[in-house]
């Protein structure tokens, strides 16, 4: 589809077909995330795990919308990334990379899938150990998860991006953690993963975004990254949220 054609007819959640495509993409990427988590074991190569995540998305998206008149693009919208410990996010290794996982690693997994350009994204923190997570690792993961849940509830028509920024900073502080600077939650549109409307996770004098109000039929990727503050432990949660009665948890 050309840029001109997309501008002529911008599809949104007022279309039941669009909602179905978002939902299908969300189901696939959530299953892909479970697969990637199951592959995270000590001494496993990171590049092999990332490839399995991408391959699963390509395979599953290839099985849907096969018998339609118009050819529909579908597949990986953002490569599977596996970031360890003090690497914040977006580590997508080259095929020649030999890095492996080790017991006790804090892993941040992020990936995205699309059907006809309608994108579902997900990120999750996983600790490579047996038994419950305790201490500061537990704090930073809980901070990210709780802040993400709060943000998802605030991204609603009539609310403003500043409302979300203020709330997630308060959540992080309650766990004695910090929101990582420079992380943005973007509005998404068809074939656009980083739209113009954004939510700034951490407000400061050097980083500013335009004030924006959430509107009906918009879609956002909510991205939360927290830190213990010592540069060693990070927690990350990310998911798609959309208005019109549907949400990917």
Automatic annotation (TrEMBL):
Q: Which InterPro entries match?
A: Creatinase/aminopeptidase-like (IPR036005), PA2G4/ARX1 (IPR047113), Pept_M24 (IPR000994), Pept_M24_MAP (IPR001714)
Question: What is a GO molecular function of this protein?
Answer: RNA binding
Where it mainly occurs, coarsely classed, is nucleus
Any idea what this protein is called?
Peptidase M24 domain-containing protein
| Entry's family note | Belongs to the peptidase M24 family.
Keyword Nucleus among record annotations: yes
Q: Where in the cell is it found?
A: Nucleus
Report the superkingdom from the record.
Answer: Eukaryota
Q: Which Pfam families match?
A: Peptidase_M24
In the record, biological process GO terms are:
rRNA processing
> Mind telling me which CDD domains this protein's record contains?
PA2G4-like
Q: Which residues form the Peptidase M24 domain?
A: 21-227
């Amino acid at each position: 589809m050309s840029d001109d054609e997309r501008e002529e007819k911008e599809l949104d959640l007022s279309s039941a077909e669009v909602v179905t495509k978002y939902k299908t993409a969300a189901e696939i990427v959530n299953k892909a995330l479970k697969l990637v988590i199951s592959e995270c074991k000590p001494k496993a190569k990171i590049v092999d795990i990332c490839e399995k995540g991408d391959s699963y998305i390509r395979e599953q998206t290839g099985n849907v919308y096969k018998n339609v008149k118009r050819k529909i693009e579908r597949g990986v919208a953002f490569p599977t990334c596996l970031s360890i410990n003090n690497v914040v996010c977006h580590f997508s290794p080259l095929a020649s990379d030999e890095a492996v996982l080790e017991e006790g690693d804090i892993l941040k997994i992020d990936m995205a899938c699309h059907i006809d350009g309608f994108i579902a994204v997900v990120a999750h923190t996983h600790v490579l150990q047996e038994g419950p997570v305790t201490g500061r690792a537990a704090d930073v993961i809980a901070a990210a998860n709780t802040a993400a849940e709060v943000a998802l509830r605030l991204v609603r028509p009539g609310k403003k991006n500043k409302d979300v920024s203020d709330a997630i900073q308060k959540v992080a502080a309650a766990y004695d953690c910090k929101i990582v600077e420079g992380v943005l939650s973007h509005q998404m549109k068809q074939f656009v993963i980083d739209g113009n409307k954004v939510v700034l996770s951490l407000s400061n004098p050097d980083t500013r975004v335009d004030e924006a109000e959430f509107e009906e039929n918009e879609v956002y990727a909510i991205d939360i990254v927290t830190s213990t503050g010592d540069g060693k432990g990070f927690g990350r949660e990310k998911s798609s949220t959309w208005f019109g009665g549907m949400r990917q948890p």
